[in-house]
Design a protein that fits this description.
Helices cover about 50% and strands about 15% of the residues. The chain is of the alpha+beta class and about 300 residues long. The longest helix has 25 residues.
């Protein structure tokens, strides 16, 4: 008979790996479910599993690698920029330490998109979850030496795209508050002061709602774009500063319904990148966590 105890014990870890690998709550939960089904089959058939944690980690990683291959093809057909699905709050299911939260931010997950599936798996398993290269080699079907090369290559790609000096938590909170105040007041000059000179906005509507299909680049253009959006907001619009993926973010609600989630990539000199998730399919988890409603905004033109 299958014993679900070891799976339940490690379920949080499995979801944490899958979410970072796939950038999608739905896909991560599917991967966890597939891992559970394989666990049940193996244990139900009497297979001896000496280390459930190692076995489950191997399965979830391989399931995610398979999913990443098809996900990349789908994202090439995606309408406008593709952004990861945000998570509300600071869930112990996905992060336990400050370092974990740094690897959970949307900015970090977006950077992971620049890696090949195996680079992503090796980098996450080693640098985020602390697995040794021998174990990782068995998981991804490569030698220890090649896994070290993959990890090195991944770190170099990530370093190229990350700000040299990153803001600390206090700076992030201050910049978020200043940003929201400036947007709410329609104060372009104050808004510009919160941004780096090369600030960029990415909007993910997935073709289901109105969103900029190309990035907006340059702080003056970004400030104009955002103040115009705020100016068109209805009187029922409310903004809430909330922890999103462990970082300060902003949730926009209209009549209590989540319309978008805004998160940031912070440099010490200001906000470097603004990620706006408008696709209603990607807002359900945040909507459920913050409002208890399992749906977000309905698609509109």
């Amino acid at each position: 008979m299958a014993d679900s105890g070891p799976f339940l014990e490690h379920r949080s870890l499995l979801f944490s790996i899958a979410y970072r690998m796939l950038g999608s709550v739905v896909d991560a939960e599917d991967a966890v479910q597939e891992t559970y089904l394989r666990w049940r089959r193996a244990t139900g058939n009497g297979e001896e599993i000496r280390s459930p944690k190692a076995w489950l980690t191997t399965i979830i990683s391989r399931v995610c690698l398979d999913q990443l291959g098809s996900a990349r093809a789908k994202r090439e057909q995606y309408v406008g920029p593709w952004l990861p699905e945000p998570l509300a709050g600071s869930s112990p299911d996905v992060a336990d330490t400050v370092a974990d939260f740094d690897s959970l931010s949307l900015a970090f997950l977006v950077l992971l998109e620049s890696l090949s599936p195996k680079e992503r798996a090796v980098f996450l398993l080693h640098d985020v979850f602390g697995y040794d290269f021998a174990s990782i080699g068995e998981i991804v079907g490569e030698s220890d030496a090649y896994c070290r090369q993959l990890a090195k290559r991944a770190r170099e790609k990530m370093a190229e795209r990350r700000p040299r000096f990153e803001a600390n938590q206090a700076q992030r909170e201050r910049l978020t508050a200043d940003f929201l105040r400036a947007v709410s007041d329609g104060d372009m000059l104050a808004l510009i002061e919160t941004l780096t000179h090369d600030a960029t906005v990415f909007s993910d509507g997935g073709g289901k709602v109105n969103a900029a299909r190309k990035p907006v680049v340059g702080r003056e253009k970004v400030a104009l774009f955002l103040t115009n959006l705020a100016r068109r907001a209805s009187e029922e619009t409310r903004f809430r500063v909330e922890p999103i993926n462990g970082q300060p973010g902003i949730v926009t609600l209209v009549d209590g319904v989540v319309r978008n989630v805004v998160t940031f990539d912070f440099a010490d000199s200001g906000i470097r990148t603004i990620y706006i998730v408008v696709n209603p399919d990607k807002l359900r988890t945040v909507a459920s966590a913050l409002t208890g409603v399992t749906h977000a905004a309905e698609p509109h033109s």
